[in-house]
Design brief:
Layout (H helix, E strand, L loop, with lengths): L14 E3 L5 E3 L5 E4 L5 E4 L4 E4 L5 E4 L4 E4 L5 E4 L6
Antiparallel strand pairs: 1-2, 3-4, 5-6, 7-8
């Protein structure tokens, strides 16, 4: 949300940040990540990736979601709860 606030999304529904901060709703169980030059890669249902250092990708266990915290730290979110 505005100024870095967080909005709780319903379990199984995920959003991504679009151009100019807009959000696009993705279908339940379908996940996208931002690829090079703004392209999007479709990830399999129930599989989550995050961008790691130097653009590397780390695979997260099914149903476990991470977010980027201050100074690049990572906070683990409860299964099925995404911010």
């Amino acid at each position: 949300g505005p100024a870095g606030s967080r909005d709780l999304l319903d379990r199984g529904t995920y959003w991504i940040e679009g151009p100019t901060g807009s959000r696009d709703l993705l279908d339940q169980g379908t996940f996208w990540i931002e690829g090079p030059s703004g392209s999007r890669d479709l990830l399999d249902r129930g599989t989550y990736w995050i961008e790691g250092p130097s653009g590397s990708r780390d695979l997260l266990d099914r149903g476990t979601c991470w977010i980027k915290g201050p100074a690049g730290s990572r906070d683990l979110l409860d299964q099925g709860t995404c911010w």
